[in-house]
Design a protein that fits this description.
This protein has about 400 residues and is of the alpha/beta class. The chain has 2 domains: about 15-145 and about 350-365, Rossmann fold (3-Layer(aba) Sandwich); about 155-320 and about 370-385, Dihydrodipicolinate Reductase, domain 2. It has helices spanning about 25-35, 50-55, 70-80, 100-110, 125-135, 150-160, 200, 205-220, 315-320, 330-350, 365-385; strands spanning about 15-20, 40-45, 90-95, 115, 140-145, 170-175, 225-235, 245-250, 255-260, 270-280, 280-285, 290-295, 305, 390. The radius of gyration is 21 Å and the shape is globular. The structure holds nicotinamide-adenine-dinucleotide. The site of nicotinamide-adenine-dinucleotide has 25 residues, from helix 1.
């Protein structure tokens, strides 16, 4: 086996970042995660919607002055004018929800691969268009539902697929936060002002955290959600967007799922939990304790599977997602980097003419479209007091 980086491409992938400047949150995480394993190098970016702020932020990301751009269009035109061996390979999108579609479309049509944050778009029609563009261009499109990158989530996914839990019957996923408690909307917040604007965010707690829970259910169980019945509320007196909701999800006529999303639960930080019930066993995972997976079988002692790469009970998918020995905590950055690494494998195959599989280890453009469909269906359902809405793609 070759030791060359990104064999058989044998070089680092060149990354551009959109967003992340100033006090922004997730752009910095993208930059760190993508470069964690020295497989990519951040060489270009549009770090802010304000051209001057974008250029000012570039040095703190290690981006040279000549490749700190004022807009996405300027970046794409300038990068296409560079020799192929200097040009970016992929664009990471860490900007407000309403901007994802145009940025992703421009990057894909210019031939670049894309890593986009969630929710993928603010409308199903835009999401479906991105699916078509990805299919037409053959580009790699990854969506940073980063919780799919945790080693114990990879463990759970393989355990379900191999039948260790038996037939899956029920799933519960909750994403509980409390940051809106007592929070007064500021006229000019340092970051995230767009999150309270319905036109820019598209949804509240549903799109912000509910989509992560929805995606995680599909990722671990492999089940396709077909219908949803949702009820949402706006409890915060000065909010216009949902800050709490329940969604019951049906998977055909058999499995049933329940998702709770909240940003008004006092003291909860990023409390994402997943519970899967099978006919042979049930499992529980909690993102605030991500290195453990709890497995229960009736009348047997509860088992705690620890992230311990050398242990016999750890499966290959989990082991491949670990970097350090058990007991040293791995967390958010490493999981995020695992999503990047999975997408890098496909980028290398695309760049070297290799054959790619339909199923991906990273959430892809179809998963992104399913998430946006989930948002729109929950909104429609909740406005009709929980009537059932289809999640199937229109023919
Ligand atoms: N995967 C996760 O865990 C996770 C966590 C937080 C946020 N997110 C998602 O990431 C995205 C960004 O969220 P955030 O919390 O970092 O937002 P933020 O408000 O903190 O930062 C947004 C950044 O994007 C920049 N920006 C806005 N429009 C731009 C444009 N057209 N071109 C270039 N830069 C532009 C802003 O100047 C700012 O620097 C959202 O879609 C959000 O849902 C994902």
């Amino acid at each position: 086996m070759s030791n060359a980086v990104n064999h058989p491409l044998n070089r680092k992938l060149r990354m551009a970042l959109v967003g992340g400047g100033g006090a922004a949150f997730i752009g910095r995480v993208h930059a760190t995660a993508a470069q964690l394993d020295s497989r990519a190098e951040l060489v270009a970016g549009v770090l802010s919607s304000d051209p001057a702020k974008s250029r000012a932020a570039a040095p703190s990301f290690g981006i040279g002055e000549d490749r700190a751009y004022g807009s996405v269009r300027e970046m794409i035109d300038a990068e296409l004018a560079l020799p192929v061996d200097r040009r970016i390979d992929f664009v990471s999108i860490a900007t407000p929800n309403f901007t994802h579609f145009e940025i992703a479309k421009a990057a894909l049509e210019a031939g670049f691969d894309v890593l986009c944050d969630k929710p993928m778009t603010t409308s199903v029609s835009d999401a479906d268009e991105l699916v078509r563009i990805v299919e037409r261009t053959g580009a790699v499109f990854g969506l940073t539902h980063n919780y799919t990158g945790y080693p114990m989530i990879r463990q759970a996914r393989e355990m379900v697929a191999s039948g260790e839990l038996g037939k899956i019957q029920a799933i519960r996923a909750n994403y509980m936060q409390g940051w809106l408690c007592g929070m007064k909307p500021e006229p000019n917040p340092a970051r995230g002002g767009w999150k309270t604007d319905p036109a820019k965010a598209g949804s509240g707690s549903l799109g912000d955290v509910g989509t992560h829970a929805f995606n995680l259910i599909g990722y671990v169980t492999g089940l396709k959600a077909t219908e949803v019945s949702a009820n949402m509320r706006i409890f915060h007196p000065e909010r216009q967007l949902d800050d709490y909701g329940h969604a019951v999800v049906a998977f055909g006529e058999s499995q049933l799922g329940m998702i709770t999303f909240s940003q008004i639960t006092h003291g909860r930080l990023n409390d994402l939990t997943l519970e899967v019930d099978g006919t042979k066993a049930s499992l529980t995972w909690r993102q605030e304790d991500p290195n453990e997976l709890i497995v229960r079988r009736t009348w047997q002692a509860t088992q705690v599977y620890e992230r311990q790469p050398v242990a016999a009970y750890i499966n290959d998918s989990c082991r491949a997602a670990c970097r350090i020995p058990g007991g040293h905590p791995e967390g958010f950055f490493e999981a995020f980097a695992n999503v990047y690494n999975a997408a890098f494998e496909d980028m290398i195959l695309r760049a070297t003419g290799g054959a790619r599989s339909e199923t991906t280890r990273y959430p892809n453009v179809r998963d992104g479209a399913a998430g946006v469909r989930f948002v729109e269906a929950c909104q429609a359902s909740s406005s009709e007091r929980g009537s059932w809405k289809s999640l199937n793609e229109r023919a």
